[in-house]
Known about the structure:
This protein is mainly beta. It has helices at 2-17, 173-177, 395-409, and strands spanning 23-28, 33-40, 46-52, 57-62, 66-71, 76-82, 94-100, 108-117, 120-131, 134-145, 152-157, 163-167, 185-189, 206-209, 214-219, 225-229, 236-241, 275-277, 283-289, 300-305, 311-316, 323-329, 337-342, 348-352, 371-377, 383-386, 388-389.
Amino acid sequence: MKQLFIIYIMLAIFSCKRKEEHTLNTVALANSKLALSLLADSLEVPWDLQYDKTNNYIIFSEIKGSIKKIDLSNNSVQLIKTIPNVFQQRTTGLLGMAIYQPREDEQYLFVSYTTKTDDKIYSNLYRYKYKNGSIENPKLLLQIPGNTGHNGARIIIGNDGKIYWATGDAAIDANAQDVTRLNGKILRINIDGSIPKDNPMPNSYVYAWGFRNMQGLTLGANGLIYTSEHGDAVEDEVNLIQPLHNYGWPLIEGKNAPKKETDSMKAVSFTAPIQSWTPVIAPAGIAYYGNTKIPEWRNSLILTTLKSQSLRILKLSEDGQKVIEEYTLFKNLLGRLRSVLVLPNGDVYFCSSNRDWNPQKGFPKKDDDKIFRLSLTDKAAGTILQAVKTETAVATAEVSGKILYEILLRFLP
């Protein structure tokens, strides 16, 4: 009898910790249905989502300095660590992360965050030893100038085992085209923070350049690397990254011609985006979907957006070189969306960003911010939603962007 009572108490405690998911809405695709469910709420601007494949945790950063985990066995949220000295103002703070889990070697969590010393702001790349949902022994790998905006800050680990760090231009346009500076670049870095000997530019971290403010970074099929980037007044972008390529900022935006005639001879060396948007949508986190679990999304990029408050599905050509179709989900329904993550089982997780510096009308709600899950289902519940095909995905975006671009050029000095 006493043993039964103890078991009952243990079960009661476990049930209190467990957060049950419930379906909010259903997404109807051509041949599949997806359940949109709520995983966690009342968060403080979650900025990056990572998956711990060893323990089945989601690790996420909050912009003011907290790193937390969600145990997917019971959906409980726990604090891992509060990072000291994080400088948080507007878009600065605790930003991108990447988890490194080789089969045999030591595991690490790489973290990018901003600090301020006196009147100087820095973007920092740190490495923490990672084990079973805990981190320790921080090591500063690289520090570069930062600003109150344009800090970029996404991180991935490539198939080559190298760190790729997307940095913003720190609100100084000239940084992006100067290959001696590390702002406005994709940087390629060894796990210990040193410069790889096989980097495309000898004795330099620089892998590619000409970026304004990258907000998403993901690894696609066959090791292809994609970024999402905020434009200025026009031409938000998704780029396919290649070594030694110049992506144009601030000399060009989107697929338009150079801003000045003196730059026209350099245009042959600029690499155009595979997708761009005018009016701008403020693209944020991006993830590659290569799973067959949701067949309609196989070989697509999934993109979160802030200004257009939507999840975008960018269908790729088979070689991954082009965007051939675009679909929009949840427009103006969940608010600003910041980061997205695809798990090996094909489920998609993404988070809202409604408590950040630029809330949209009607937000934040009292239980913002949130982490959501999209998973395959055979039942329909809640409101039935459909992905809307975005006709501006190819031709219209280029035309409208060009027209607006030409209008803006008339007012440039």
